[in-house]
Design brief:
With about 240 residues, this protein is an alpha/beta fold. It has three helices and eight strands. The protein folds into two domains: about 140 residues, no CATH class; about 40 residues.
Amino acid sequence: MRRRGAARLALAGLALLATVLFVRLGLWQWQRGTAGQAQWQAFARGADTRVPLAGASTAVPLYQRVTVTGTLDGAHQFLLDNMSFQGRPGYEVLTVLQRPGALPLVIDRGWVPFSGSRRVLPDVHLEAAGPRALTGRIASLPSPGLELGRAAPAGDWPKVTAFPDMAELSAAYGTALEPRILLLDAQDPAGYVRAWRAPGMSPLRHFSYAIQWWTFAGLTVLVSGVIAWRERRRRRHP
């Protein structure tokens, strides 16, 4: 009898722990979905208007569409590694825009495919040209899912890097850079493949995962309740 009682208590404890875990995981996914929804809405709002980037500041709302004038530095570019497009591995090309009287601004010119060999980098040569106006969205540098995926810029130009921070890009470039970047509009001929969207998975997927975890919590409560009911019935009607 004592063993049966201990087993029932252990089962109830496991059910309680599982239920709490499932509820907390559901809340976590719901919070991620809410945060993602805010980002996706901000991304959608950013396309409504285009504003000139005034002076030295990029202090505009994230994903705001802006126009900026300067000269692209084709001799010193970065290749952002571990970036994929439609399942294909490749790089995103980061080119610095020199601006008179302002910090240089990193321009993400889009995605190029991986050549199949780390020794053969894609040709991202950029013809020398004077000042020009570029249009795109103000954004942050991509961030890795795991810190182990990061690598500071290295090698000759163009320098390969994986999920760097702006301090690392600034150190490699030799001068301070604007803390945010510009995602070049798809219509601009100076870029490569560009299909920009808000970062992260769809908020609806997060919400669906939350509902799944909460469903597991409900099933755990239901199953443990049925088991407890059958045990009580068995004791009353041996």
